[in-house]
Amino acid sequence: MNLNISKLLNQVSYELKALELARQKYKKQLAPNFSVFNYIYTDEMMLSRIIADLLNPSGDHAQEHLFLSLFLHQLDLPDDWRNINLDHADITVQTEKTIRNGRRMDIYIHIKIAQQSYGICIENKPFAADGDQQLQDYANEMSFLFPQNWHLVYLSGYGNEPAKHSVKPEILKSWLDQKNFSHITFPDLIHWLKQSLTECQNDKVIYFIKEFKHYIEKEFLSMNDISEQNHLLNIILQDPQHIQATFQLLGVKDQLQDSLIHKLEQQLQSAVHQKGWYITDHISRDHWTGLNIFYTQKHKLCFRIEFNHYNYRGFFIGIAKREENLAAPELFHQIHSTISELFPHEKVKQSEWWATYIDQKDIWDWQTHTHVWSMIESGELCQRITQYAELIYQALNQKNLLDEFNLS
Questions:
Q1: Model pTM?
Q2: Which CATH topology does 39-209 take?
Q3: Is 98 helix (H, G, I), strand (E, B) or coil?
Q4: 91 or 10: which leads in pLDDT
């Protein structure tokens, strides 16, 4: 190994251990892991509610249009939008607003001043993937409601771009050119929240904003401890050779991740074989890729792990069907109920393809939740996945639902 790289790794390892010892020593005073967001299920709908409540000038925060005004500066809006006087505007903010084709907008904002109306639709995508024609449908609705003054905001968790099946690239480009579209990320909201902190006049609201900002840093940037980030940066910058070594390490990041993914597949193959189950498919950097674990070869449903975003992002597990035309609504309902009872403290969901699935929130994005790679090396992740598969197998078997897996 290059001596500079070896030196850097040794120093970083030493400093991280020292920081961890310091954290343990002062944890009573600092309580670094305590947050109100530990007790809130932060799924897409709850995050939409939080953002919408802040943007609503009539919200309980009592800061009037402070948050909305600062948020509008985050967007790439036409020049005439900048002259809107929010003091004299009639403003409506809604979540889950139903449009003509039955779809629901995550956050809908209507700003009316004199005879002019402005409309904003925020499509909140912290974790989930786009639906078919989703952004196109929202744009159609907004241009119908506000022919001259509409704007669509795509709020993504990790910088993922809108899917091509949600809106065609050439149409998206036209929206950008006409300033009908803005793409921002949850990390971008940190700047908005910081600005809000400087002007907010209520201590309770200030505390909540700080906690929300910390949640975003932790969830979407893996900044569990900002002092740790700064400490590592200082180590790198203190020696030009460290800078060079860091970039050399970054150059092999993808190969390292792919190698660990291959190791995870081998671990699961071995663990599953011992149980008499079998695996199909492979994990790749593409979206919607994963592994199928079949309890028997005759089953048409399987335990599946999957990424629904590119580049090892959007990790979840559950029971899925192997064929698109398979329809078993009653069985899906029974499986969903059984797994919900089995994991009462987790958000168990259902979709057309999935009888049940569970988002792995603590390791949702493997580019920011970087501890997952160590979990692969230690075997912890393989053990976790197989434990889920075993618990689900036992629960379904106990209710004789596995017999129904063999669908004709």
A1: 0.68
A2: Trna Endonuclease; Chain: A, domain 1 (3.40.1350)
A3: strand
A4: 91
